[in-house]
Target: Cellulose synthase-like protein G3
Amino acid sequence: MGGGGLTDQSQCLPLHTRALPHHTSANRVFAVVYLCAILALLYHHFLALLHTTTVVSLLFLLADAVLAFMWATAQAFRMCPTQRQVFIEHLQHVAKESDYPALDVFICTADPYKEPPISVVNTALSVMAYDYPTEKLSVYVSDDGGSQLTLFAFMGAARFATHWLPYCRKNKILERCPEAYFESNPSSWFPEADQIKLMYENMRVRVETAVKSGIISHDYINSKQELEAFIRWTDGFTSQNHPAVIQVLLECGKDEDVMGHTMPNLVYVSRGKSINLPHNFKAGALNALLRVSATMTNAPVILTLDSDMYSNDPQTPLRVLCYLLDPSMDPKLAYVQFPQIFYAINKNDIYGGEARHVFQTHPTGMDVLKGPIYLGTGGFFRRKVFFGDPSETFELKQDHLGSKSIKSREILASAHHVADCNFESQSQWGTKMGFRYGSLVEDMYTSYMLQCEGWKSIFCHPKRPAFLPQLALLKPAIINLVSFLWGMNYYYFHILGLGSLHNSWFRILHVSNPWFFLYVFLFLGAFTQDYLDFILFGGTTQNWWNNQRAWMIRGLTGFSFGSVEYLLKSLGISPYGFNVTSKVVDEEQSKRYNQGEFEFGAPSPLFLPLATAAILNLVSFPIGNHTSSQSKKP
Ligand SMILES: O=c1ccn([C@@H]2O[C@H](COP(=O)(O)OP(=O)(O)O[C@H]3O[C@H](CO)[C@@H](O)[C@H](O)[C@H]3O)[C@@H](O)[C@H]2O)c(=O)[nH]1
Ligand SMILES: [Mn+2]
Model:
């Protein structure tokens, strides 16, 4: 495993270790027992079918076969889960700070009204303040909304950062997202804290006022250069149709913080768009950033983040280096994925929004197989994985960058060129290169394609969450199914949509039937195992219960709607689209949420199947009881 390196000492000091959780063998044994029970059940159905073929017996066989298949796919997660640990303190034996690879961070935003610019600014500030050599750090913001408001917000952020970064460094602040830091009411308050807080509040109010009024006050624009940036928003400029806008807001080696230390690069990018050309949503935005960053910094390591996610641990890139710089590491390692962990979830997680299975349990189970899927955010990639399979020797060309300023006319010209909406026409972007197109879940699809090429990944799940995303309230959890299958793990995600089918079958069988007890075993066994899994990952009973409820609701609503939507799209009946989730917090709604109240306020067709099923269950319960008590009479 880990270790190896420059000095003799490093031979015995591992950079990382991995272990099998204790309960794995119990899970394996249980899987065998459970498999036998399923086989017995299918055999029973089969016999029944030979005896008398009715529609009901056929349906039973079909339903249980689907269930059995779902069960089998879910077992892949349980066979060899992995718990990893890294040792940042051993990194010094392997590499000097000056040998660390450069890191380009990509942050995506798409709509200033659904994704408040101040929250994107917080995302950026939290990573700009990473404990990483500043001259090796660059942050690129992709604005698919093509909004002056976002650019304006980032101009303020660039100025605030010159105070925030040295403040964090000097006082060794752990919480480097300003909003989270000031909200947490830090116990140790430093002398400059009040002043910094005031600066932050001023910036926040300015940005929020601008978003509300739609007017950008020129009083807060400091330089002629900044003012000129807005000239590009001409009359015909819309979010769907405009030329590329790239603005370097901070340049490493030129811009300094208030202590005289250099700042990291901060670049605003709004790729060119045309209503006549597909823009391929987030995957398209990320690919534009891949190319723009290549003309400026071309860092060998890339981190992608969504606008609702912030860094919660400044040492995260060092954790990643424990894998990337390990000389004995598999050269096929493509990316290191961190879980999505939500903050501000109410105590019992009433909507089951935490999605522990998807973001924590499953990636842990996939880790040693070929690695976890890419979760769309919180993934550190090697740049080269986007340009070929592991056997190809990709050379990261750095010489064209030379010592030229990223603000030089030459570099800006090539950056604008590669961000143009026509650049990808007739190219391999999205098919062989970059993030892959053709699926709305570009994350899962891209990692699936990369793993097909032979790349691998690692799941890094430190105790202190590396990143925290905001939970979108009332988000219909529509899962769009991708049309390719990848081993059992990917099968599992594909048939998630079928989950809606299975819940009702159990209720049809009579207690008098001895096979009923097999059902009881299968049913309770699965639930108990799921429950134990949940508790082992730190959940509570109440959370688990709410999760089960949410799973039922999603099966009937999001998953089945998603499956229908996918079908319509595949047949070309409905168009392909992506709705950006709104991250705007409604005070009233969030108050109700924190009190644990269910929200039924939003009108949605999703409630139709839900209400129907509830009524049907309500009605069939007394009827079922009535008929079974009648049938017991001689
Ligand atoms: O045309 C677009 C659409 C979206 N986005 C960005 O994509 C991110 C994710 O969008 P969001 O509306 O938050 O979607 P979610 O459903 O919450 O996203 C989940 O699912 C997506 C698709 O699988 C993943 O990309 C995300 O990382 C994952 O959090 C956001 O930062 C958006 O700004 C763009 O940049 N351009
Ligand atoms: Mn999101």
Notes: The chain has two domains: 22-80+487-580+603-632, 93-469. Residues 22-80+487-580+603-632 form one domain. Residues 1-7, 474-489, 497-508 have pLDDT under 50 and may be disordered. The pocket of uridine-5'-diphosphate-glucose (ligand 1) is lined by residues 108-110, 115, 142, 144, 281-282, 285, 306-308, 376-377, 441-443, 578, 580-581 (CB under 6 Å).
